[in-house]
Amino acid sequence: MTKALKKDKLPQYLQLSAEEILQKKESPEQEAFLEHLLKKFDEHIAKGGKILLITLTKKSSEEVTNFLVSKGYKAFYLHSEVATMDRREIIKKLKKGVIDIIVGVNLLREGIDLPEVTLIAVLDADKEGFLRSTTSLVQIIGRAARNPHSEVILYADYFTESILKALRETYRRRSIQEKLNTEQGITPTAATSNVKDLEIVKTDEDLTQEFSSLTRGKVKRLKRMTKMEKNLILKDLRQQLDDAIKERRFEEAAVIRDQIKELEGE
Questions:
Q1: For residues 25 and 20, what is the distance between their CA atoms, to the nearest angstrom?
Q2: 155 DSSP 8-state letter
Q3: CA neighbours within 13 Å on the CB side: how many for 238?
Q4: What is the Cα–Cα distance from 41 to 99, expressed in whole angstroms?
Q5: What is residue 200's predicted lDDT score, i.e. its pLDDT?
Q6: pLDDT for position 203
Q7: With contact defined as beta carbons under 8 Å apart, do 66 and 211 qualify?
Q8: Can you tell me the distance from the alpha carbon of 54 to that of 102, in angstroms, rounded to the nearest whole number?
């Protein structure tokens, strides 16, 4: 059974005493979850930042996205049922500033390197499991390190052991980095994102806020392929994948990896 975070350890990782946390939670002035979330969205978007909103299920990512769109936010959902080329185009549009928010279940795929992101909001952070394990939370929090002005918000009803361990590891890494920055005279700056002119299936005009326009399921499979032809294509794709990883072309590597998985599944 998952253990809740011990009260005597809260001050160390949250800079608040157990009493202060309880008072803050019970205060009538405490903002409701949704009000707080949307306020944060507005703050970051106003400063030109981009946002990743992480949910637990594909269905909830779509529902949340529809809600945000109804509120006037430029948002898209991104999960495994969105075709590979659409996923690539959505990420590209976030980098270019066409959209502000990507909602998804697991936005830590290899290749998703987004220094433009200044806010990562995690819903249901206290729902223990693979997507909210210590490792997953550390990876999510670490993704924000690409921008010195970024922040991560874990929305939860209580503190789990995974949250405690993730916070401990985050502060450990931060203290090491801050010490190095001081010793070397380094001033943190946002990483630069290289938006390439990618070959895509959809044009800018095709990709709109109409979610029905996004291709569902896997992309069209190759027909009448012999086993020998399939093996040759897989061999070539694996070589392309290795080359892309070695040259740190991670977005391209992610697309190639998906193509390999689709071919292997046929």
A1: 9
A2: -
A3: 9
A4: 13
A5: 34
A6: 33
A7: yes
A8: 8
Provide the greatest CA pair distance for the chain: 68
Please give the span between the terminal C-alpha atoms of the chain, in angstroms, as a whole number: 40
> For residue 122, what is the enclosing H or E element?
strand 117-122
Backbone angles phi, psi at 146, to 5 degrees: -75, -15
CA–CA gap between residue 118 and residue 47 (Å, rounded): 9
Which of 5-9, 79-83, 88-92, 104-108 has the highest mean predicted lDDT (pLDDT)? 88-92
Q: In whole angstroms, what is the distance from residue 150 CA to residue 121 CA?
A: 11
- Helices then strands, counting H and E runs in the chain, come out as 9, 5
**128 has pLDDT over 70:** yes
SS (H, E, C) 23-41: HHHHCCCCCCHHHHHHHHH
Q: The whole model's pTM is what?
A: 0.65
